[in-house]
């Protein structure tokens, strides 16, 4: 992420509590599995690039969008 994980988690919680669909572009990749898990619990959609997707496969994300990049 380009912002602190605590900020992303707080923003996701506020948005979710307000009834919004929470979409997170999780690049650059989160290296801590605990952070991935906590963010997955609060997000409806996670967007990652193809090289990061395997790290999110088992995180419990309701919807995982994988971007392909330039190839």
In short:
This protein is α/β, with parallel strands linked by helices and 71 residues long. It contains three helices and three strands, in the order αβαβαβ.
Features:
alpha/beta, 3 strands, globular, 71 residues
The number of helical elements comes to 3
Span from first to last CA? 23 Å
- Label the structural class: alpha/beta
| Sequence of strands across the biggest β-sheet | 1-2-3
**Helical content (DSSP H or I, runs of 4+):** 25-40%
Order of helices and strands: HEHEHE
Characterise this structure.
It is a single chain. This protein is α/β, with parallel strands linked by helices and 71 residues long.
Write the SSE topology.
Elements: H1 5-17, E1 23-25, H2 33-42, E2 45-49, H3 53-56, E3 63-67
Parallel strand pairs: 1-2, 2-3
């Amino acid at each position: 992420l380009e912002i602190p994980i605590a900020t992303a988690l707080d923003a996701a919680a506020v948005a979710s509590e307000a009834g919004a669909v929470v979409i997170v572009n999780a690049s650059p990749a989160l290296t801590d599995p605990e952070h991935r898990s906590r963010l997955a619990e609060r997000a409806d959609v996670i967007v990652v690039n193809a090289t990061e997707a395997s790290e999110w496969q088992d995180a419990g994300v309701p919807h995982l969008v994988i971007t392909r990049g330039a190839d």
